[in-house]
Amino acid sequence: MTKHKSPIQIPKFQVPSRTSHVARPKSKVAGRKSQIANPKSKIPLIVVVNDDGVRSPGIRAMARALMELGEVLIVAPRDQQTSMGRAFRGGGVAERIHYEVDGKNVRAFAVAATPAVAVRYAILLLADRPPALVVSGINYGENVGNGVTISGTIGAALEAAAMRFPTLAVSLSVDKIYHHSHSEAVDFAVAADWGKRFARKIIKLGMPVSADIVNVNVPDEATLRTPVRWATVSRMNYYRSVIKETPEGSIIDGYDQMLDPRDIESDSDIHAVLVDRVVSVSFLTLDLTAPVSEQEKKRWLK
Question: Which CATH class is domain 45-237+264-287?
């Protein structure tokens, strides 16, 4: 007789359900604040995830800043998962790890999986109440332009948003030599403070109407007084593949930034971070539907 494995246990709280609808003018998390379902605690629960791995200084800096706002639960990939997007790979049992921030113990788990899977572990298996907020980051490197969907940082944020939880992604502009590192040479303090500012707003005010993710990108030389700009997501490639000739033939050998500032949309996230060096804030949505007019649909379908 074939033995069937027991199904995954659903947590005591209810994950917000999807509702069928025709029009989708607003995000389902718009205006949503914390829904405290655990009578043992009225403290907001903040889940923190990333794509650089649970031992990254970036996630530690973000956790440190968020501890002022609520209870932090860290659930992150065991290993480096940069550029994994929203891929679903890996799993196994989440490993409880010893994690201290400024002498205080923080509940933290490492998952041998991608960032999106780590989010599911956090919400479905490890959180004892609905998160007031899911924060992804701080990432080594900015997440701007049409390549945002490549990012594991944004992939984790997309997964949290798909599960109907308020979501914030935070990235710091750094040289690409640090993108796959855990270098202590990168100072995340200012980016963490900017992340905390927007986390506080989301917990207090709820998500902006029509937004599923608040995506924050901080220039590496930013201060707490650097201006903030509401930016569109550029349609341009921020990074482009480098072609290398070898004796065996042509290969793609990494990536580099190859942009002419004159070509960048002035209201975009790339222009904000790369050209004007201001803090970029973009509102992302799960709705991938192109806003094609009825007139254009009729013309195209003739």
Answer: alpha beta
